[in-house]
Backbone:
């Protein structure tokens, strides 16, 4: 609403004018045969794309018309553009049309969603831009209109007062004054030169003329030629005296209306002053009558303020405790989650299976170690027996050598 107020009240009807110009341009490009007959479409009305009428049975009809005409105009500009179908995606169709318009040098400063309704100011703007580009690509030029020459009677032509320039008005005023002086002012010098009494009296004859015409016939003749003797003076709107008279009439009317309006305004002021005095006196009376209630209200208001302060302090403590409770609840949730994880791990039988497998493997290793230990003990026993036999053999050898030594 603020944007419309800035643009002025005439902007509401600018779309209608734009649509009418658009329809004329489409007719110049022969859209009836190129589009309407080809797609079996009814002719467009003067304000077809201005708004969405409720009489349309198919809400997408306007958008389809907009897309078909846009595609035809883009093709006239020398760019390849496929004709949209009725059930195509409207978002893709609008995006393609705006892309082609930007490529042709058009300005687009509004969102594409403004065109999905198929009507409105932006739809008319896009079509007008495309039809201008098509006319330019076709080399069409608007020529000046040729008006037929008609002979107009000068007495019937009345120019507008607003078209008179200041110099022309002054010239007419000067000419009027000169004519007025020539017609109404007596030439005193010429009168002084006239010395003949007959010239001064208008060449009056010496004998009195008597008429022998019948009075009844004279009256009939006068009645017959009377309509032809009426002189009608046409009012010249260019005369400054007429404007001056009109100004005086308007001024008199303004003065009269101002006098009446002053009387009404003075009376209204007196009524308002009396009403204000009554309201002031009534207000004072009410203040005196309701003074004890006002004091009670002030006390209640002060008590309410104290209660509000206590409530704010209490609410502050509640807020702190709520925060602590939230922290404790969060910690409790963490503990519950850990307990659930441990419980799920304890109830899981995979560790027991692993332990059993480990025990079985350990038993096998123990048996292998026992076998190895038995082999080692057996080897050690044989080594000890061998060593013992060697020692025994050495002892027998020494006993045999001792007697032999004594013999020597």
Residues:
């Amino acid at each position: 609403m603020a944007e419309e107020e800035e643009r002025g009240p005439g902007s509401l009807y600018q779309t209608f004018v734009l649509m009418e110009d658009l329809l004329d341009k489409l007719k110049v490009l022969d859209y009836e045969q190129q589009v309407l007959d080809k797609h079996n479409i009814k002719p467009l009305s003067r304000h077809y794309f201005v708004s969405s009428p409720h009489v349309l049975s198919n809400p997408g009809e306007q958008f389809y018309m907009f897309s078909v005409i846009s595609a035809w105009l883009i093709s006239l500009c020398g760019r390849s553009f496929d004709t949209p179908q009725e059930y195509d995606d409207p978002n893709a169709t609008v995006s393609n049309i705006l892309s082609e318009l930007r490529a042709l040098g058009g300005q687009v400063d509004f969102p594409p969603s403004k065109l999905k309704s198929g009507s409105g100011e932006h739809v008319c703007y896009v079509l007008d831009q495309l039809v201008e580009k098509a006319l330019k690509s076709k080399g069409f030029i608007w020529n000046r209109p040729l008006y037929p020459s008609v002979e107009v009677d000068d007495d019937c032509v009345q120019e507008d007062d607003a078209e008179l320039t200041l110099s022309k008005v002054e010239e007419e005023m000067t000419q009027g004054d000169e004519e007025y002086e020539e017609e109404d002012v007596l030439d005193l010098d010429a009168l002084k030169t006239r010395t003949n009494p007959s010239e001064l009296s208008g060449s009056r004859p010496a004998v009195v003329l008597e008429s022998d015409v019948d009075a009844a016939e004279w009256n009939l003749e006068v009645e017959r030629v009377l309509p032809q003797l009426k002189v009608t003076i046409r009012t010249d709107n260019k005369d400054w005296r007429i404007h001056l008279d009109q100004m005086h009439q308007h001024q008199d009317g303004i003065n009269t209306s101002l006098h009446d309006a002053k009387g009404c305004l003075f009376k209204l002021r007196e009524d308002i002053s009396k009403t204000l005095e009554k309201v002031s006196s009534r207000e004072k009376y009410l203040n005196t009558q309701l003074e004890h209630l006002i004091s009670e209200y002030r006390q209640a208001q002060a008590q309410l303020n104290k209660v509000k302060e206590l409530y704010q302090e209490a609410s502050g403590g509640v807020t702190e405790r709520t925060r602590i409770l939230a922290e404790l609840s969060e910690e409790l949730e963490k503990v519950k989650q850990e307990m659930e994880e441990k419980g799920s791990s304890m109830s899981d039988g995979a560790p027991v299976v692993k332990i059993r497998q480990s025990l079985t493997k350990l038993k096998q290793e123990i048996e292998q170690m026992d076998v190895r230990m038995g082999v080692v003990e057996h080897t050690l026993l044989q080594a000890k027996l061998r060593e013992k036999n060697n020692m025994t053999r050495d002892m027998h050898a020494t006993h045999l050598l001792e007697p032999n030594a004594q013999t020597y």
About this structure: The chain is about 70% helix and 0% strand. The CA atoms of residues 64 and 88 lie 9 Å apart.
